[in-house]
Amino acid sequence: MRLLLAVVLLVGLAACGSSGSKSTTITTVPLPTNAPPATDSAIATKPVVTVPGTPPPTTLQISDLVVGTGQAAKEGDTITVQYVGVSYSTKQQFDASWDRGQPATFPLQQGQLIDGWVKGIPGMKVGGRRQLIIPPDMAYGANPPPGGQIAANDTLIFVIDLVKIG
Q: Is the pLDDT of residue 102 over 90?
């Protein structure tokens, strides 16, 4: 399963969904034993994102689909990523940098991105592909961005490829 978040929506979503007072539970899903090693070709194409047929999780789910070999991202870094974002409820893509033909660059920090990205990307290495399943309280909550592609209190799935740091 590969899933990504939309960077364009993330900047707008951060303002709507961030919450500085909530405690956060993060679940790191073990890397499958058949996960491919990082190579230039491992993240060279847009991933297909599949929504699980189970109820959405209530905690942030982090799963490395491809383990990178480069520098690890940390909060405060400026990162460049390719991503795909899919709504858990509709199973439809709502954004993808891949469709715009270029990666997106932004600071990995509170106030710039939704909490799910700020808490789910640190530790990811350049050249890697990571899936984040983000519960509503770490995404947009009751205040989704305009456009109607994300419902209020929707869980989001992102598959993110870390292209570079800095």
A: yes
Share of the chain above pLDDT 90, in %: 72
Fold of domain 7-165: Chitinase A; domain 3 (3.10.50)
Name the nearest CA neighbour of 28 among 93, 111, 122. 122
The DSSP string of the chain is: ------HHHHHHHHHHH--SSS---EEEEPPPTTPPBP-GGGGSSPPP----SSPPPSSEEEEEEEB--SPBP-TT-EEEEEEEEEETTT--EEEEGGGGTS-EEEE-SBTTB-HHHHHHSTTPBTT-EEEEEE-GGGTTTT-PPTTSSS-TT--EEEEEEEEEE-
Specify the pLDDT at position 39: 55
Closest CA to 31 of 117, 118, 128: 128
pLDDT of residue 88: 97
Reference 88, options 61, 52, 119, 132; nearest CA is: 52
